[in-house]
Amino acid sequence: MTRRARSEAAQDPLWQVGKYIRLSREDGNVVSESVVNQDKILNDELPRFFPDGRYRVVDTYIDDGTSGTTDAERESFQRMVADIRAGKINCVVVKNLSRAFRNSADQGHFLEEFLPLYGVRFISLYQPAIDTYLDAEVVHGLEVGITGFMNEQYAYKTSADIRRTFRLKREKGEFIGAFAPYGYQKDPRNKNALVIDEDAASVVRDVFTWYVSAGMSKRAIARRLNELGVPNPTAYKRAHGLRYENPNAKQNDGLWSMPTVSRILQDPVYVGVMRQGRQKVISYKVHKRAPVPEAEWYIVEDAVPSIVSKETFQAAGRLSQKDTRTPSGNRQVYLFAGLVRCAGCGKGMYRHTSRQRVYYKCRTHAEKGPAFCSTHTIRADALEAAVLAVVQALLALLDSPSDIARKIDAAPVLTAEARRLDAAIKQRARELERTAAVADGLYMDWKNGDIDRDQYRRLKARCDGQRARLRTALARVRSEREALSPDAPDPYLAAFLQTGSVPSLTRGLVTALIDTIYVHENGALEIAFRIRDPFRRLTGGA
Predict the structure, then answer these.
(1) What pTM value is reported for the model?
(2) How far out from the chain centre does Cα 348 lie?
(3) What is the DSSP letter of 395?
(4) Which CATH code is given to the segment(s) 15-158?
């Protein structure tokens, strides 16, 4: 063994020490490997390496819950490397090689090339003990190489075991994600099970109801939620204490957008379907994720409680596939949007206004000419009258409309809006109380000297802005709730009870009953209903 020879008069340099500590995910809660315990061991052992006391701890670099198989994803490790390059530290101390490396190639580069290049001393307390100042050649020894190989094999085996465990859990429909989907939360008794989070679930139900039954566009739904002061899914999770992150989290302003609404309407988790394994880590050394073909996903039916019915979810899917664009400033989707097609070419027809009248016209004829499709057109009011007449005629065939009306009256959908507004009032009031408490706490922090005057003013201004938005949202919701008279009968139900018919069409009724309306050249209509008995839902049939 080659040892550094020094005269008794020679003095060791002043060592600027950087302590490196890492705890990986697979280490779990093992006390001996905890961050606190590693730090204590390093502090206790440091003096024996510097008998003359010529050392100073510059910084402690901690990667908690991070794999050692790659350097790139360890933020504190990269910070330590930057400090070495900047000359801030000239000595690195670790508990053992496995804390610094689980990749033998990275270990070799760091110990044999990088540290010598910058003249940095490396100390490993155990497995094996290393001090490159006393023995620079130790890093080339067989024991260090074998230890690096064994550490890498341990990482590989651990990774394989974890992947095997995850696969079994996914096959059984157990949830293994870090954060529950919006509308759910992890079961406190079982982290692999999801339960409904009623506050968020009520918003999910509103999104589906407004889209399927009320005929609102996705953009209008997002605008409506923002007006009510409802935080978007990212802001909601953070407000409930979750350290939620995603690629766009830093730019998230807490507001709803059309893509967010679309993702909710398309996610089958809300009917109990668990989809997992849509991405995979490339390898235990390369931690980047790659998409997985849909055929290889883990899909389990009825794995979680449903928030909306399968019928509602399917209706939302059908509507999303249809052209339901709305003009700027219009929140409601047109009554027949996405449903009217030309019987000649099968293409969707477009709305056209001429002399204050609205028509549906064949797009192929208008854009490509009569050689490709003949004239197919119908006035919008005539179309609505004809479809209403068909619906009323079918209703007349029912034996007991009053019995059906009583079933409708007993259905919870009639009181859903009132319940939603009541819940929104309570939630906004709770949030307002919470922001008031935060504001009071800021004042005390300032008085106690925990924050300075500028910090207090900046945080107070942000808090005041949030409180103002909450007050506006609360006033708007209360106003809407007061407009709902608890004794007033539903107008649709009242007309149905009185006449046994419906006075007009609604978007929800149309989309529930009709799949497609075909317009023929002579203005004749062909209506394709979604189900064999269009009023099966009203009569309670299966």
Answers:
(1) 0.53
(2) 34
(3) H
(4) 3.40.50.1390
